[in-house]
Write the structure tokens for this entry.
Amino acid sequence: MPESLITGRMHRFTVPPESAGQRLDRFLASQLAELSRSRVQALIEEGRVRANGIAPKASHRVMPGETISIEIPPAPPPGVAPEPIPLEVLYEDKDVAAINKPAGMIVHPGAGAGSGTVVAALLARYGGPQGLSDTGGPLRPGIVHRLDKGTSGVIAIARTGAAHQKLAADFRDRLVEKTYLALLHGALRGDSGTIRLPIARDLRRRSRMTSRRPEGRSAHTDWRVLLRIGKFTLVEADLRTGRTHQIRVHFSALGCPVVGDTLYGAPRQERADSQLLPALGRNFLHAARLAFRHPRTLQPIEVRAPLPAELASYLSALAAALKFDSASVDAALRGYL
């Protein structure tokens, strides 16, 4: 039976005695032959699986009599139609490319977003699927990693299957350097530090992640203060892992959410002393730098995306409202404009 005939439904299974001790992902893959094990793992990561009502990890060992439920969402339409959307290309050759994704743009189609994506723009630029790696499937040609909708900055694109496999392995093995700029609400303690908190799906609000579940996946963020402006802190953050919403979750856990990130506790509009600042309309989070080895030549490549004008303007408005030295802001952003 094709997967299309089992989607859009909730499936429930009771673990028989002979399956006791199996990993959860293996058990579900054996019950639903239409789904690959990697597809099952993705559904578990999205919080669509419950074991006796609790969201488990893929490595959970099932017990006899345990009730396992899995929600399989409706399948999106196959493939993506090219759209002539302008892209800022920061680097490209026949193997890889790197683009500067604007905030507000979805990387690939998903629930509620079928057009206006990075994938649609890439298909138009590179002449269809043949110009991109097909390793990620028809909905994600060329996509090796992602940025949140509200985050701007550098994304690496694979144009061949070999490049995709090598880049994916380097991301997995933490050989890719990822540097972000973030403006935080609040004052961090110290001038630099490391955050090591696990990240898992929030069981109460599925659109969020949380660091409060010890069974979450390990996550590691290093940070350094670039500038302190009143009750705000501008930081440079290096991701050592690549978990969903990692920077947003980690700094929110420290009581310093990313400015504009209302999902994780930031106010919709910030105040500078008594002055209400204009709403930013996005998260102040930008993937400023990506450094990796070329997947074919192994030569080092460093790609930088300049800070978007709306973020630079917001910093200037904040500095002006607090009568803060603009030269200090310029110095902190040197190399990022």
Observations:
- The helical segments are 24-31, 37-45, 118-125, 161-172, 246-253, 309-321, 326-332.
